[in-house]
Amino acid sequence: MILPTLPSPKCSAVDRGTHKGRPRYPRYPRYQWLSWLVFALLGGHAPPTFADPPQTQAQPQAPEPAAPLDGRDGRELSLRNFRPRSELRVPQHLLTRAKFPVVDVHTHFRHRLRHDPEALDGFVELMDRNNIAVCVSLDGKLGPDLASHRDYLWKRYRDRFVIFTNVDWQGDGEPDKPETWACHQSGFARHVAKQLAEAKRAGVSGLKVFKQFGLVYKNPDGSLIRIDDPRWDPIWQACGELGLPVIIHTADPAAFFKPIDAFNERWEELSRHPDWSFYGDGFPSRDELLEARNRVIRRHPRTIFLGAHVANQAEDLSVVDKWLEELPNLYVEFASRIGELGRQPYSARRFLVKHADRLMFGTDGPWPETRIRLYWRFVETFDENFPYSEKDPPPQGLWQIHGIGLPDDVLRKLYYENAAKLIPGVAERLKTYESRTSEP
Ligand SMILES: [Zn+2]
20 to 30 A from 221, CA-CA: which of 94, 133, 141, 178? Predict the structure, then answer.
């Protein structure tokens, strides 16, 4: 690897001061700055230089050892090596426990703990320490898989967990042959409605729809399944009739629908996970997906929909504000989005206070305790400029967040009151939790 040739001030001297009224900075060849930026982002692939290479006798040479792009001694700095340590000194409130009992409505106990019993014991201890009364596991699945998940969570901790089930769109079909998938056979949605009724009798509290619905699953002709396809209407209708709320993950952060380039605010993350990008012709636009979801919500006013991840529009809360005004059966939770809300603390606080009756609390965990405690710090304090994750670099954008100090009445609604009203099984578990924790 070689370092880029930085232009010497000499070679740009002719360009100096050619624009009236502008400061006289040395000017570099047009777009040279872009090639430096790309260079730094790519971790050191040298950009093209504009100078002729020096004429030397071709001699076989051992390659020079790569210079570290560590920003020292005048060397370039790779974005991957950039770890700024804030010199800001402001008050810190490192909360270790939520102020009121919490219902975490967005957790993945199958996907993240893989049914490991010791990990579950450890997490329940963490819940006790942090005042998390109940977790909603969204990985219930259906049929025998549902039974194994119930066993895992409920054998010892039935009073701490409720379970959401999932639709099995593929069934016995072959992954690459959509025409064989269960969802394309006649009577599918009515069959799912029956399964939902059975799941409800087995103690399930709601339905989770994953983001592949709209972005991955296909029709027999190769097109993507439409979220608002009327074929699925009996499913949403059954959820309304059974009193099962639907938590739906549609689309993803705005940056995932943009090119992975120097202008992408999540470049660092997407460069590590290019498969998370939905940019390009193979995908519907983010707006199309979110509008299709909203049409479903509008068509089924008796069904409660919980828009996962601030209905996946945390970058523009004015839009979510309009949706909440227009769709009385829509609620939101902010799992894995305190990074978004916390970088716009004034807007976020105004939004959360205004829609206090339409919020639920979610994390997308189980996460390490350090990260979970950042959620308490975000909603309960006015701390400034702190991380939203224990990871270094921060995994969802290279920025810090600020606390929004929600008032107690909003905190109560966010933490447990709304979930207790809307999710079957939560209210009685909260009661059990409160009676246990208030014992002397
Ligand atoms: Zn999730």
Answer: 141
